[in-house]
Specification:
Distance between the termini: 6 Å
Structural class: mainly alpha
Helix content: over 70%
Order of helices and strands: HHHH
Number of domains: 1
Length: 74
């Protein structure tokens, strides 16, 4: 999902050096303007939160169900 959002931004001539920058700009430039359904921005935020939990949280911080939900959202 992240790379799709980044591609949308690159298509508009925008580039960001952080995940947070991409997610914020995607929301501001695509979800908030109605170019994409707002739920896609929420999917991106939720996926990033789970990524952080998986990378930096405790072992098994992300359940199989949560991972499957993200796959379905993607």
């Amino acid at each position: 999902m992240f790379y799709v959002a980044e591609a949308f931004l690159i298509g508009e001539g925008m580039s960001f050096s952080s995940h947070a920058g991409v997610i914020s700009a995607f929301g501001r430039n695509f979800a908030r303007t109605g170019k994409v359904p707002i739920q896609f921005h929420r999917f991106l935020i939720d996926a990033q939160d789970l990524r952080n939990a998986g990378d930096y949280g405790q072992l098994n911080a992300v359940s199989v169900e949560q991972a499957n939900e993200q796959i379905m959202n993607a």
